[in-house]
Design a protein that fits this description.
single chain, VC0802-like, 2 domains, 8-stranded mixed beta sheet, 15 strands, binds aspartic acid
Length: 441
Amino acid sequence: MQTIVVKFGGSSLANADQIRKATDIVKQNPSRRYMVASAPGKRTPDDVKITDLLYTCYDRAVEGRDWTSALSGIRERYEEIARDLGVTSVDLAAEFDTLQKHLEHEPKADYMASRGEYLNAKIIAAYIGFDFLDAADFIRFDETGVYDSEATEKLLVPLLLRHKKAVIPGFYGALPNGEIHTFSRGGSDVTGSIVAKAAKANVYENWTDVSGMLVADPRIVKDPRPIEVISYKELRELSYMGANVLHQDAVFPVYSAGIPINIRNTNCPDDKGTMIVRHVKNTQPEKIITGIAGTKGFTNILIEKSMMNSEIGFGARVLQIFADFNVSFEHLPSGIDTLSVVVATEDWKDARTDILKRIQEVTHPDNIKIEDHIAMIAVVGHGMVGTKGLAARVFNAIAKADLNIRMIDQGSSEINIIIGIKDEDYETAIRALYAEFEKDL
Ligand code: ASP
């Protein structure tokens, strides 16, 4: 029998109606054996996610402010969900007593946040009649909070063999001392991927509120087409540039096991969504480009020094400075006597003055120029490999839109061309590129 691991996001499980839709999808196919659940998300655009309410309770508790009404609000939402689903076997009164006691004595942010998925998964498991498996029992982090795949798989693989069908809360696990620890926000995607790998799933279905990824940002271009198939590598290039349907870290566990990810829409379950696979078979050779995506808010640090190319280790010394301040660089375009380090402005803002001082001391440059408000745009696609004239089309489209390209970076894998432009030109540039490549997308 096939095994499908399904993960439902917060909007797919925001209330009893949504949970019914999600569990109907699970029941429709007996291969859908493991269901990873997020905490209830927004029911309407101006609603508040349960996870955010739980963080609010925690913040108020540590600041010595009143958290009781926020906790009551959370409790009411779960009581309503359980009542509407007819679930009576989950003792919510006892669960909220425990939560209240936790808030009264040394509350912990990760523990509080994790209760969103814990309670939702418990109720859903009772409703659908699957086992409930607490992620704290098998998702393991090391003492520094880094996910420990070896320890997790040792616990999870045999556990899944003993449970044919289960609901598993996403987003959290435990440190070696048993303390609850969470992934970063949106981390239920990661849990789903870990479970899919441990279950040796045939596919990892990630159910959300959109019918897959789109070839471009719909807030900027009108009605972009959905992407039917994309490779893990292309997804990395695009997600890194902002097409955020899936948590960045969710790719790795399934990638190593070669399990495809299928992004699906709980509200339109008949839509095929986007399939993320290891290798894209080129069934549509006319689709040269898989997607166009970008992000604003980068800084370009241009270091100039004559005869830089003969100074062995120059680049290594510069990068070591960024590493010492725990700032990762995004791009590194270089010339004969210049080296540009592109970083997310937000990432280096606290260390900015110190980093610049160190660069002066260590490299004695002729000049350092800083440019903020840079947007990076990536044009991505396996079809680009070996296709002539593509770069020319990218630059032509930007030139025709009367915009200035500040920086160019083509990965040697040839599946992307990245350009840097001013933040204020970002939307115009995306539209210009979309118009140029619309028929190739
Ligand atoms: N509930 C968590 C969040 O809002 C994790 C998730 O939904 O994936 O970030």
